[in-house]
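Q: I'm building a small set of examples for a reading group on sequence design. Run inverse folding on the following structure and report the sequence directly after it, with nothing in between.
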């Protein structure tokens, strides 16, 4: 009897314990476990990560988001793979093997949606909807696409977006990036991706224990990233693009007073609105994704004579009216050094040698200076060194070691020396402003979606190059005369004084008759420089580059409708 009573009490005790535990779990801890169950069965399927808007300095939109439609599939629900491949390849135009790899790949969660193609057009959407009964597991889902209103005109400046790669993921995962994210792959989109990237939105769906979607609960709105306001002037950007036309090369425009970049154009170019068209290198062998302004590395040619002149005047190697006779050739040991003008320039001083870009004059003073002095002055102006512009992938160029160069070639910008167009733009800007080297920059402000200033960028003076005022006056006078009566006359604009320097760099020995690079750097107005321009042509002469620069400056300072005509047939100086 006693045992029965004890057993009964023991059982009742455990019943009480169970009831208390149930009360605790179902009443007291109900909110916690309810939220836990909701989190386990409600999943958000991302429809895209909204990005901030990119504006030019005057508020014109350069990049923004817009709604789009994506083709997605659930791997578990794909039944007849070959049949679906056949149908899809005819609709979206993708290679069958690519679709097969996508559909048959082993996914961690076979119930997750996988994007097969982004930004479907209206015809593709209609065809897919017509064939949905033959495409189990495949459907159209809303998404976000990036729109670039200026298309090709801002291609290299803004860059483009693409799916994060494995190497990028390993580097960025600690910052919240994950597989499948669309991120900036070049240009401003890449440089400021962390600021532009917002928080993802998506569709909230209920899933079962296996993760299979059962029903849609609702929609979660994404939060856009921060907006960017650039130093770029969209009007000048358009002008530069239009004047470069279809020539392979680049144009950049800067404010020499503070380093603000006003335009960057490189050609061949790509349209970020239709990126896939440019991915086939066989169709586009001229490297449309190469931003020649910051990544192109070329011999500076006769633009380097600016450095040679400054070095010669500053060291007292020559004085303003010291003359050298140019007969068209100069013999040095067993070498014959040519001027671009076969018959020579006769007796010239620095005031004529720079406008006419006399190789014999500069070769002569280059030999007096020596390689080490030329290299020293090149480095003072930070040639062969990245400018620090806020764009990814800037090249450094190359300033040779003393033993690698000879003074004849180096004095006229030939030999193993290479620079980037942005470095040459920085050089002419430093001359224009009296010796200040400003760091070029493109982003002025970063603004939150609420309109708060997150970050504001101010001009950064990297260094001051001391140049004697007399040296600067002589140099500037010579640069003005380059345009007035020298090698850069095709840059001349009535009513506007321009100072500039032409440069032609040979790709190989002249006897091979291979194309040359033609370049021109300049600033205007002469007495109060507000704009500096570099034009670099992969194939062409320096006068052709000068004419492009002149047309750009005319449209900036003397805005009027100009005829879109072919380049005029005028006398071409060569160097």
């Amino acid at each position: 009897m006693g045992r029965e009573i004890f057993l009964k009490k023991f059982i009742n005790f455990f019943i009480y314990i169970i009831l208390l535990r149930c009360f605790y779990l179902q009443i007291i801890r109900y909110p916690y476990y309810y939220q836990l169950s909701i989190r386990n069965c409600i999943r958000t399927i991302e429809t895209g990560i909204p990005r901030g808007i990119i504006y030019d300095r005057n508020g014109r939109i350069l990049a923004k988001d817009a709604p789009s439609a994506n083709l997605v599939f659930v791997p578990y629900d794909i039944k007849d793979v070959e049949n679906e491949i056949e149908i899809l390849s005819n609709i979206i135009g993708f290679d069958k093997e690519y679709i097969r790899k996508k559909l048959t790949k082993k996914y961690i969660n076979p119930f997750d949606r996988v994007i097969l193609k982004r930004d479907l057009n209206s015809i593709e959407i209609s065809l897919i909807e017509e064939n949905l009964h033959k495409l189990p597991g495949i459907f159209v889902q809303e998404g976000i696409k990036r729109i670039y209103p200026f298309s090709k005109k801002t291609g290299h400046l803004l860059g483009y977006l693409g799916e994060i790669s494995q190497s990028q993921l390993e580097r960025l995962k600690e910052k919240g990036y994950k597989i499948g994210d669309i991120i900036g792959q070049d240009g401003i989109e890449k440089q400021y991706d962390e600021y532009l990237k917002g928080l993802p939105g998506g569709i909230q769906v209920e899933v079962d224990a296996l993760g299979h979607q059962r029903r849609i609960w609702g929609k979660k709105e994404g939060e856009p990233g921060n907006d960017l306001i650039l130093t770029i002037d969209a009007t000048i950007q358009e002008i530069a693009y239009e004047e470069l036309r279809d020539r392979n090369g680049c144009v950049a425009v800067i404010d020499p007073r503070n380093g603000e970049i006003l335009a960057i154009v490189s050609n061949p170019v790509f349209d970020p609105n239709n990126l896939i068209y440019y991915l086939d290198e066989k169709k586009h062998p001229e490297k449309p994704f190469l931003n020649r302004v910051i990544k192109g590395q070329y011999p500076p040619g006769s633009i380097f004579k600016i450095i040679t002149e400054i070095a010669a005047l500053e060291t007292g190697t020559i004085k303003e009216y010291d003359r050298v006779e140019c007969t068209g050739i100069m013999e040095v040991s067993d070498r014959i050094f040519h001027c671009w003008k076969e018959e020579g320039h006769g007796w010239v001083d620095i005031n004529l040698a720079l406008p006419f870009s006399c190789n014999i004059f500069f070769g002569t003073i280059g030999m007096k200076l020596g390689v080490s002095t030329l290299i020293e002055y090149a480095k003072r102006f930070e040639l062969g060194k990245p400018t620090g512009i806020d764009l990814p992938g800037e090249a450094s160029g190359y300033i040779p070691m003393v033993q690698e160069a000879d003074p004849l070639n180096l004095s006229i910008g030939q030999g193993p020396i290479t620079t980037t167009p942005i470095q040459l733009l920085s050089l002419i800007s430093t001359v224009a402003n009296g010796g200040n080297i400003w760091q070029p920059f493109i982003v002025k402000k970063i603004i939150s979606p609420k309109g708060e200033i997150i970050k504001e960028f101010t001009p950064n003076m990297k260094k001051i190059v001391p140049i004697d005022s007399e040296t600067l006056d002589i140099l500037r006078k010579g640069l003005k005369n380059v345009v007035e009566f020298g090698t850069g006359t095709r840059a001349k604009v009535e009513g506007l004084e321009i100072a500039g320097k032409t440069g032609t760099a040979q790709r190989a020995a002249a006897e091979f008759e291979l194309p040359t690079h033609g370049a021109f750097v300049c600033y205007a107005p002469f007495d109060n420089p507000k704009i500096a321009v570099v034009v670099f042509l992969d194939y062409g002469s320096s006068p052709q580059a000068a004419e492009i620069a002149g047309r750009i400056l005319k449209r900036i300072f003397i805005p009027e409708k100009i005829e879109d005509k072919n380049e005029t047939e005028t006398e071409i100086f060569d160097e």
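The longest helix spans residues 2-28.
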